C-alpha cells in the first residue's frame, strides 16, 4: 500500500502530461501561470493537494482521487491470488499504466499510445516470463489470443461504426486487459467485457436520467474496461 502511494506523483504527472486534446503538445507546466511541473519538482502540484506551487491553481485530477485509485489498485493486487511472481508483476505493471489512463480518458476522452502501448507490451512480456518460469506455455498462448481477440473486437467497431463505435485507444488498452483476463481462462475475457459494458450502461443511464448527457453524447469507455477487468479477475480468483 505504501509503495502504491509512493508512486502517486509519477501517476499524477502522467495524467497532467497526457490529459490534453488530441493533436496538442503534452502539458509541461501549470496552465494558469506556466510554472514547470516534473518529477524533479513534484510538490505541491503532484501531491495530494494537486495545487500549483506558483499560483495555487488546481493541477490535474481533484485532490486525493489519484491517491484513492492507487490505493484501490494496491488492494486489488493484494486480494487477487497469484501462483507466480510473473503473474503478480504483470498485474502490477498493467495497473500502473491503467490508473493514469482512467483519469486521462475521463478528462479528455482519449487513451494515448504512450501509455497504452507500454501497458500492453509489458503485460505480455511479464506473462511470458511467468510461462517460462513454471506456468507453462498454454496460459500464455491463451492470454495472447485473448488480448488480440479483445483488441480486434474494439477495433472492428471503430472501423464499422466510426465515432459511434469504440475508439482505437480502447482497442490498444484491451490488448493488456485481454491478456490478463485470458491468462485465467477462455471465458474470463467475455466476463470482463460484459462487466465493463454493464457498468458503462448503468452509468450512462444514470447520466441520461439526470440530464447530464444526451443520447448523442460520447462517453469514455476506458475506465469501465479497467474496472471490468479487475472485477472479473476478482470474481474468478
Automatic annotation (TrEMBL):
rRNA processing recorded as keyword: no
**Transmembrane stretches, start-end:** 115-134, 140-161, 173-199, 219-236
Decide whether keyword DNA repair is in the record.
no
Give the UniProt keywords, A-Z: Membrane, Transmembrane, Transmembrane helix
Q: In terms of domain of life, where is this protein from?
A: Bacteria
GO biological process terms on file: signal peptide processing
Pfam families in the record, alphabetically? Peptidase_A24
Cited InterPro entries: Peptidase_A24A_bac, Prepilin_IV_endopep_pep, Prepilin_peptidase/N-MTase
Q: Which residues form the Prepilin type IV endopeptidase peptidase domain?
A: 96-205
Q: Which GO cellular component does the record give, naming just one?
A: plasma membrane
In its UniProt record, a GO molecular function of this protein is: aspartic-type endopeptidase activity
Q: Which family does it belong to?
A: Belongs to the peptidase A24 family.
Q: What is this protein called?
A: Prepilin peptidase
* Source organism phylogeny: Bacteria, Bacillati, Actinomycetota, Actinomycetes, Micromonosporales
Amino acid at each position: 500500500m505504501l509503495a502504491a502511494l509512493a508512486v502517486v506523483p509519477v501517476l499524477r504527472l502522467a495524467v497532467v502530461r497526457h490529459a490534453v486534446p488530441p493533436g496538442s503538445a503534452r502539458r509541461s507546466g501549470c496552465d494558469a501561470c506556466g510554472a514547470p511541473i516534473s518529477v524533479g519538482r513534484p510538490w505541491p502540484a503532484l501531491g495530494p493537494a494537486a495545487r500549483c506551487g506558483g499560483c495555487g491553481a488546481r493541477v490535474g485530477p481533484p485532490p486525493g482521487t489519484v491517491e484513492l485509485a492507487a490505493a484501490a489498485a494496491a488492494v486489488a493486487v493484494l486480494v487477487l491470488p497469484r501462483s507466480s511472481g510473473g503473474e503478480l508483476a504483470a498485474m502490477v505493471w498493467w495497473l500502473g499504466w491503467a490508473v493514469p489512463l482512467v483519469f486521462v480518458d475521463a478528462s479528455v476522452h482519449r487513451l494515448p499510445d504512450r501509455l497504452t502501448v507500454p501497458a500492453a507490451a509489458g503485460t505480455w512480456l511479464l506473462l511470458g516470463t511467468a510461462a517460462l518460469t513454471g506456468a507453462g506455455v498454454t496460459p500464455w498462448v491463451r492470454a495472447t489470443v485473448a488480448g488480440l481477440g479483445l483488441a480486434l473486437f474494439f477495433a472492428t467497431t471503430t472501423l464499422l461504426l466510426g465515432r459511434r463505435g469504440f475508439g482505437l485507444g480502447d482497442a490498444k488498452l484491451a490488448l493488456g486487459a485481454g491478456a490478463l483476463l485470458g491468462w485465467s481462462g477462455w471465458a474470463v475475457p467475455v466476463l470482463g467485457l460484459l462487466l465493463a459494458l454493464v457498468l458503462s450502461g448503468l452509468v450512462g443511464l444514470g447520466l441520461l436520467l439526470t440530464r447530464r448527457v444526451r443520447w448523442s453524447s460520447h462517453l469514455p469507455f476506458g475506465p469501465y474496461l479497467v474496472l471490468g477487468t479487475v472485477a472479473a479477475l476478482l470474481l474468478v480468483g
